[in-house]
Amino acid sequence: MRILLINPPNCGRSIPEERFGIESIKQIFRGEPLCLEVLAGNLRDHDVSILDLKADTRTFDKALSDFAPDMVGFTAVTCEANTVLELARRTKEICGAVVAVGGVHASSDPGFFNVYGAVDYVVAGLGKKSFQKLVRALEKGQDSASIPGVAKICHEKPISFKKREYSREDLLDHVAPDYGLVAGYRDSYILPTLGLTVGFVCTAFGCPYSCSFCSVGSLTGHRYLTHSADAVVRDISLLPDVPVIRLVDANSFGNPKGSMALCKAIQKSGIAKAFAADARADSVIANPELFSMWKEIGLRTVIVGFEEVSNARLDQMQKQCTVERNREAIRLFHDIGLTVVGDFIVSHDYTPDDFNALEDFIRENSVDLPMLTVLTPLPGTDIYGIMKNEIFITDLDYYTLTNAVVPTKMDEEEFYSRFSRMISSFHANGKV
């Protein structure tokens, strides 16, 4: 089959820009569509192409006409869902290909894509194995109903899935991503501040934690599925000309024993790269020597979800951490010599005092690059159920993590102005 996998364009709308002319809130980093490369790696007996609309200047229509696919697969996060639905409709008009949609939003709210005449199949959760099964079923004219995690769209009927169980078998460790399919876009995947090309390598899927604002854990039934050290080293080696590797994982050090094995495997391989990876504060407190060893083999940056500077708010978010432990973690990271990218969530009910407390924490603890988002009740998260009745903006185009989709406690323009000033101030001096 001819299969076209599509990464949707940068999309989403901005309340602060549209209402108040505030443009500095936009934070766009263009990274490769690893989820599509992973799917493609398991479809090597088919004619597969990847269209990255975040990097490609060609028109969507031309790509469809030139490649003439039998099947088109889209991925989408929540703020891209409306755009993907429109692209799916356009796909049907141009070439009539079978359309499947996967990714975070399809996994969290599959009913959104239950639209007859646009989408044919929804693939929820890890798709490396299940998407291949769907392709094989279509190729052989077989029924897809028996494939766990795959649902066929039925006109005027709710979609249903066969129950899915997750295991390490879903990772298909022996099958590498097809990085070659984005070779033409590689120069677009850079760190803007340093001008260095970045490559993505997956070390694990899922998360054992249940933070109320996050849907990552639910994508694998809260199982934490780690790739083998050999598989990760293999994938890094497939990107020889890429100087910086972003290890994609909710917590790259969540399994200390496995992380140490990977560290030793990279060291043994002689790979010389700079690494950036996600980490929890409690990971470095429990295993500072692990991070020191990773520093020796190239770890330069850790991305840490500190989220809040109030223990009460951290408890509400189910973070299982404290402000005091976050402070200790930052000190340890700096002692080791690592750059700290800190993720913080600004809640809709912030007051000027809350903004002041956040700014003071960031400056007092010398967080190298703070990344600020607005608390957003995304489908598939616990807070979505908790805050559902407060949501007054239901247009998913605004679910970019920079819009308050529930009413703000402060005057709205004042809220966004303060938020914008903090971003501008910190990013002017930030580093990675």
Q: What layout of secondary structure does this protein have?
A:
Layout lengths: L1 E6 L7 H6 L13 H8 L5 E6 L7 H8 L3 E5 L5 H14 L3 E5 L1 H5 L12 E3 L6 H10 L10 E3 L37 E2 L4 E7 L1 E2 L19 E2 L2 H9 L6 E5 L7 H14 L4 E6 L1 H6 L1 H10 L1 E9 L3 H6 L6 H14 L2 E8 L5 H13 L4 E6 L7 H6 L24 H17 L4
Parallel strand pairs: 1-2, 1-3, 3-4, 4-5, 8-11, 11-12, 12-13, 13-14, 14-15
Antiparallel strand pairs: 5-6, 7-8, 9-10
| CA radius of gyration | 22 Å
SSE arrangement, N to C = EHHEHEHEHEHEEEEEHEHEHHEHHEHEHH
Q: Percentage of helical residues? A: 25-40%
Number of strands: 15
Number of helices: 15
First-residue to last-residue Cα separation: 42 Å
Key words describing this protein structure:
2 domains, TIM Barrel, 432 residues, 34% helix, single chain, 6-stranded mixed β-sheet, Rossmann fold
Quick structural summary:
The chain has 432 residues and is α/β, with parallel strands linked by helices. Helices cover 34% and strands 17% of the residues.
Structure description:
There is one protein chain. The protein is of the alpha/beta class. The chain folds into two domains: 2-164, Cobalamin-binding domain (Rossmann fold), CATH 3.40.50; 189-428, TIM Barrel (Alpha-Beta Barrel), CATH 3.20.20.70. The protein is 34% helix and 17% strand. It contains 15 helices and 15 strands. The chain has helices at 15-20, 34-41, 60-67, 81-94, 104-108, 130-139, 229-237, 256-269, 281-286, 288-297, 311-316, 323-336, 352-364, 382-387, 412-428; strands at residues 2-7, 47-52, 71-75, 98-102, 121-123, 150-152, 190-191, 196-202, 204-205, 225-226, 244-248, 274-279, 299-307, 339-346, 369-374. The protein has a seven-stranded mixed sheet. A six-stranded mixed sheet has the order 2-1-3-4-5-6, sandwiched between helices. A two-stranded antiparallel ribbon has the order 9-10. Strand 4 (98-102), helix 5 (104-108) and strand 5 (121-123) form a beta-alpha-beta unit. Helix 3 (60-67) packs across helix 4. The radius of gyration is 22 Å and the shape is globular. The model has no long low-confidence stretch (mean pLDDT 93).
